[in-house]
Automatic annotation (TrEMBL), chains A, B, C, D, E, F:
PROSITE patterns: HD. This is 3'-5' exoribonuclease YhaM. It comes from Pontibacillus yanchengensis. NCBIfam families: PRK13480.1. Keywords: Exonuclease, Hydrolase, Nuclease.
Length: 318, 318, 318, 318, 318, 318
């Protein structure tokens, strides 16, 4: 089986299909046009230059298209870059499809849905259960395909549901250790906390921010929507305010986008569970790419730190 | 006519009716109970001690009641304190009523309402006009009596409407000077920006924060309500998002409670107009209490600054 | 059975033994001396004033002594204060002992020790296991009695061991959810992270800071001690540096006392687990004191927030 | 009439005169020298590359010279760049002059001067009037040509006077709304607040910082100069200190360059009026360049925000 | 010889003359007036209460008067307080004078003046020498009596000159170690850096801030004055700007009151020398009051730190 | 004698030997490989491009090798760049050696060692003397060759010892001016404060950070080592804690890497002496490169400031 782009080293030859993520025209210092392509497969991305590009190249090699490329992986300003030797558009007979070239959660949509459904089923508080179930039904398709973020963590297809399910599992264990926690509230908060992103972002595959996303943001949008759904379902107990508060406060501080800090126990835990799962996702994926004794690349969302994998990392694993 | 409590100097004798704002029991070092009363009239507040208070005193002199008090204005830890010599509850025959003992805006509710109505009438954009008119109608009574804040600025009866009207006047002039401004949007933003306080605060006279106020806050509450009203009125143009954005961003920065900073011209101006009017209200009221050549008390909401009134302040006034 | 001081309301009569935590002489405005006593039992503390104290009182009612007190719980500046009506020193025949008047962890020292021993037993990495076991053996007695902190969280007898065991349990679950975590490293980091406090603090019961604690602090002291123990045991693999790094970085940021931020995955998780358990300890103990629908007192170590207990908090509990 | 450079789109052909703002020699990767020219006309600037430049080109195409250029507008790293096809120096017979290629205030110098004179004429306080008149007379020529800043706002010929006049107009309206304001003090503060820039900057057209500007700054320089002028005019009332204070504090905070914050009402308003006018100038000029439904480029001096122009922006304009 | 107030312990009897620094009337909880006196001698200050004060007491025991007091040193809220047993005003026959009751520099005014004169004499740069000499002559009397600050460091009679002389000595040594330093510039900067305080403060003995001090501050005032003196002396070389820059930047950062940071080598050193001498003055005076093995009181101007005096502090002294 | 690379101007021809500091392969836009060489001699560094580099070039011109180069100094993006015309590896017959191509302290290792030895000899406190002497003996060779830092200040061979000796000289003078200082403690702190860098950095010539350096840092590493040495020498007086505290706190604040701020007088002075000497080293070396009337390049470690050398800088020098 062919290895993905992330597994190539500097100097490796390359010969495979790639999905074009973006294509930008430039003019070289010799006056000739060239294309800067960002290419991707399921393992990652790479930048490539197509020198002396023709008008036809410009119209053929555009975003969302697949192409067969041969070349060599070089280094440019400390980053890998693919030097294209030959390129041709993919043909129907090649039997490749775009959906195989994007990163996906390591768990199937069915399993993710099942775990979410189970969590809702376990709820005893009918107000929380009805609101949560309503949202999951209403947004089921998007919920199962959207990423949890545009970059940094869970930024892949089904990333949002994957993040929710990891957090539900964490919450279940915390409830065991700290039985005073209100499990229903915590579960509901986890499932709903980032659903505003389904409106903040434009789509599952190559998401950008919507106008509402830019001007209002997913947190106030979701607070509003919980209010609207509660009205629609005729629910007006304190549960509505608590759920809105949990969504509102889950970034922890005003300067991180939460106009109120967590003021109930479950909101504080939601914030911490969110942190733990997002950080573990970033750390595991970065550390997977390095060998024991090496440091990862700098992780922007973790204060630009570069993490070390100890030499004895794999020594005592079962 | 009797002068109010704010116009008494240290050492003055006092003999007048006062409204009891709060009453707290304590035990003196000699073991005897006493009451700490916060008293107010239309000009301001003063603390008073009722030593050796009986059980009956405790039940008589409670918050929201009026009392006739004689005594002397002393100083305690740098603040004026009323030393009570005699106190009796007000009688129906005294002809005093509580509403005369609270501070009010210097403009009548009718005039305030008229100016707001006029601003709505001038609007050309029907979406903005309908939403704004709906809110004003829905909340008219509260809007005309609530303060704009619990403390710091416009913290008096009709303070919110007074603040709105001052800001509308300011906006009208700015529109003259900067004709590119969208007057409808600015007017609508001004009228709605703080309406969430009608739900954040418990009442017009001695307001405290509601549970929703504490856990959600007036900004997200109002964003939600604009969404609900727009749905109710069947309006879904970009005006709804812009209005929500203006309310959301009017504190200017995340750390001041606005999860998004102003991202449209009118939102930026709304934020600045709000600042100008709030600051002028605080400054004028503090400077009114001092003589030329003196400094005001420290103003907490203005970075704890103490402002100077120049010696020539009144010299060239018409 | 008698209820503890924390369960008294303002106005309640009081008649019970208490442990004197501190005793300070003052002079009242009438020129007579009095004593300010801080009294405690296993449920909490209260301040009390003994007016017109004699020389004998001064010498009798001193820190660490027990006394039988009758009086009434009053309020002073918003805090409960015990008004003493009578007081006498405890007699041998009273059958009370000081150790019953301090707060303790809700788990026995035996159970705590067992869980720590079990965690060490599970380790596969011999270097980590030997170092950790050495420390636990060396400090066993103090480890089982010291608080985790002077105030804020786990500030009771056996608090440190209680905190360690809760964190070990949390770590065990995290390892299930994120199998890439190095359990041995995480366990060792958890057990050792705060052991420096055994030298930073003066004792288990009423701890104060030692000179070394004030000038060096528990983090660098423990880093040094891990180095010394490793030398003593003849261990010099990378495990020593990793353990030192985990202790060094567990406060997360330089401004919180960690000269290096976490730079390995397990150090990042140690920091987060520490946060989760400390916060849950503070939250649970504060929320236990209020009824549904009420807010807790302000929690200094949680950004001075006051937390709300929802009305439906106990409604769906099993 | 020919459209300016700011109105060209990527891909447009270009054929017009431009003023050379700067010219820098470089060596291309083929070892041949080239010139990087920054070109401007009254509407804006563009960068251009003149490849394979001869020694003669180097001496001909230098800063402050005019040239006739044909070429094409390309994109380079997200910014427009002019690809030069032919270039020749402007001839006397071309009838173009440098002063037509710089941006100017949209109001004539005569009108600006008239408004400033009128404001001084209205003053009733003779001390303030004499000092202000003295400065305006002394610096009249520079005052009418200098920009208000090197970049960000009013950074064009007569920008300083334009800024002053806008602020005077704003102040006039504020005085109407808040009659307690001392109009003379506010007018004097507005006219003088940035006059130090006439010494801080090297000239009106392509200003750089003088040595005194870099080491002392316009604020302390102007405070000093007010003192000197007052001495010269024999004025020593409190007005001198107040004027110095207004200049000194008009940046609002120590970290923004004002060693004292505003401590008189008019100083606070001067700071806010300055903000309002500077921001409106930046916003209007950026929004003019985009269509409804688009965002502006990021505005560095406004916290790097990108502003949105609503779709309905021009819909209800008269 | 009698020991000063700073050398009394809690519990000591007291019988001596004191200077009254301030006297404030209060009303006790028994309704009777009392005076809070702040008393001082050459070693320090103490607060005292004069209970049941008569009208006559009020008029006799006022600020700036001397009184003979007997009493006892007690503790109140952790601070020493003098309990007055008897008090009488000082008589001419007592032979005490106010100037003996204030703290003074440990060096005579003659010696201080001589060292400053010597430093000016050593200068080779005539411009710097003339300006500095002019200022010293003009302000000689105040310069030799003013404190360097109202509190924190060198806050005693002749404190400013003492601070200048210490800094000159430090600068002389630095010049030896770093010969590139411009000694003339450094000396001139040291002598002038705080002279603005002679106008910022109201006097030498019990200084308060003048209006100009509050609204302009000593730094911009001195920058202005250097400019005026240079004009008067007909000096306009770069030395004037450099001297102004050194005064302007000597607080190091905008947020500490310097609108420009140091931008020449000697300005950077002036800032550091100022820090070293101010801190040594605070540290030495605080450490003098404690024994080896003790901590000082918290020093507000040193980030509220409490400093330790090692046990071996005096062991190896010659 | 040949002038070094730092003394070349843009446009100068170049013909000399250089040490290759690093060599990186790149691919030009024409597809041909090139080498980016960083070259250095005892006066500084320069970047150079070797276009169309052969495989042999790649293997010949590598880090740590010497080469004879002719070419021309050009400018690229505002920095000097050497355009290589010819290059050949150095031959044994050329008689050049690498150690002549690195920057060194301006004082010989013998003189540095002598001054350090003398300072230890002067100590009267035997505990401090023994510990310090032990460290100097143990690390003598590294101590005399390592730089004080990787960049910014004293970043040359013997830089650490040079920094220590300058600080000792400064301390000697401070002791004269402030006789209360404990000279032994200050000397010991100065000699040891940065010795942890001998383990934090990989070597003297082209130092990088070790793993322990990255994960623990030189401060905690040195605190640990002082503890170990004291144990080894059987010393346990308070001197050990004081020395550890001085090392620990010498960065001054938690956010600068010191988990405790200075809490003894000598620690505060150590921090300030360190600042003074590091800043003078940076300032002198930058100002040496510019002429009177010019500004230095921006100094990153001094808040990115650019310093001015006054026109009269050299005018009155002896």
């Amino acid at each position: 089986m062919k290895k993905g782009i992330s597994n190539h080293q500097i100097g490796d030859a390359f010969d495979d299909f790639m999905l074009i993520k973006s294509s930008t025209k430039g003019v070289a210092s010799n006056g000739k046009p060239f294309l800067t392509l960002v290419l991707r497969d399921a393992t990652g991305e790479i930048e490539a230059k197509l020198w002396e590009a023709t008008k036809e190249d410009e119209q053929t090699f555009i975003a969302e298209e697949l192409a067969r490329i041969t070349g060599e992986v070089n280094q440019f300003r400390g980053k890998a870059q693919l030097k294209i030797q030959s390129i041709r558009p993919a043909q129907p007979t090649d039997g490749v499809k775009a959906s195989d070239f994007v990163e996906k959660a390591p768990v199937s949509q069915e399993d993710l849905m099942e775990r979410i459904t189970e969590a809702i089923f376990e709820m005893k508080n009918p107000n929380l259960q009805r609101i949560t179930r309503h949202f999951v039904k209403m947004y089921q398709e998007a919920l199962l395909t959207y990423p949890a973020a545009v970059k940094n963590h869970h930024e892949y297809v089904s990333g949002l549901a994957h993040h929710i399910v990891s957090m539900l599992n964490l919450a279940k264990e915390l409830k065991e250790l700290y039985p005073d926690l209100d499990q229903d509230l915590l579960y509901a908060g986890i499932i709903l906390h980032d659903l505003g992103k389904l409106k903040e972002l434009s789509g599952a595959a190559t998401p950008s921010y919507t106008l509402e996303g830019k001007l209002i943001g997913h947190i106030p949008m979701m607070v509003e929507e919980i209010g609207a759904v509660a009205t629609e379902l005729g629910i007006d107990g304190e549960e509505v305010t608590m759920l809105q508060h949990m969504v509102l406060s889950h970034h922890g501080k005003a300067e991180w986008g939460s106009p109120k800090p967590p003021l109930i126990r479950e909101a504080e835990m939601l914030h911490l569970i969110d942190l733990v799962d997002a950080k573990m996702n970033m750390l595991n994926r970065s550390l997977d790419k390095v060998q024991p004794g090496e440091f990862t690349e700098r992780l922007f969302a973790m204060d630009n730190r570069s993490f070390y994998k100890p030499l004895f990392a794999d020594q005592y694993k079962e």
